[in-house]
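Write out this protein's structure.
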Amino acid sequence: MPRHHIYTAIQQRLLVPDPYYTRGCWHRQVLLLCGHVEEKLSDEMIRLEVATEDRVLKPLATILEDDIPLIEKLRRQLDSRTLDMDAAKTRSATHSVLSLLISFFWFSHE
C-alpha cells in the first residue's frame, strides 16, 4: 500500500470520534497534522514526477526515436560519400600520372 494511502487512513481514523481520545488531545492533533503533511508531500512528489517526465523524459524519448536514427542514416551517407570522394581522387591522380607518362613518351619519340 503506498504511503499516501496509509497516512490518509490514519488521518481518517483520527477524524472518527473515539471516547478514549478527546478532541483536544495533543497526540491526536499531531497525528492529524502529520497525516496532512504526508498527503501534501505525496501530492508534491507526484507533481514533480509528472513535471520531470514532461520536461526531460518526453524530449529525450523524441531524440531517441527520431533524431538518433536520422543522425545514423546521415553518418552512413557521409561515410559513403567520403569513400566515393577518395576513390575519385585516386582515379584522378592515377589518370593524371598516366596522362603525363603517355605525353612524355609520346612527345619524346617524335
